[in-house]
Amino acid sequence: MVQGNLTSIFAYDDCRELFERALTRLEAGGAGIRIKLETRSAAVKLRHRMNRFRQQDRDANSRVYPEDVPNHGTSIYDKLQLRIPTAGSDDETNLVIEKRTSEAYEVEEI
Q1: Is the pLDDT of residue 3 over 60?
Q2: What whole-number distance in Å separates Cα of residue 50 and Cα of residue 24?
Q3: Range of 58's domain?
Q4: How many Å apart are CA 69 and CA 57, to the nearest integer?
């Protein structure tokens, strides 16, 4: 049984546009983008759709690129993280797209 448009990567053009805007902002020296939504639930749903798009992009790249090519099974958007601020905070309805970095971790050299 076919599930309709949601199985098509083209059903996620808005997600691709948002990821591209975040990458463009990073290239310009910024930290990423913040998407303001009406509710926290809407932010969670958009994050889910964006992760689904990213998975479909990986799947498509698995079919396009041979296994010995770095792009095989990956997405250019894998370097970005999708973060929703803590529930109860002033910006809890936002979805933040930013570069994945190790700065968020406490690292101790041993």
Answers
A1: no
A2: 17
A3: 4-99
A4: 15
Q: Does the residue 38 lie in any domain?
A: yes
pLDDT in tens, 4-32: 445 788 899 999 999 999 999 999 999 99
DSSP three-state, residue 32 = strand
Is residue 110 one of the residues assigned to a domain?
no
Query: How many separate domains does the chain show?
Result: 1
Residue at 106 is within a domain? no
- Selection from 104, 82, 103 nearest residue 37 by Cα: 82
Measured distance CA(27)–CA(16) in Å, rounded: 16
pTM listed for this prediction: 0.85
Measure the CA dihedral 62/75/49/95, to 10°: 170
Nearest to 7 by CA among 72, 62, 80, 56: 56
Tell whether 107 is covered by a domain. Answer: no
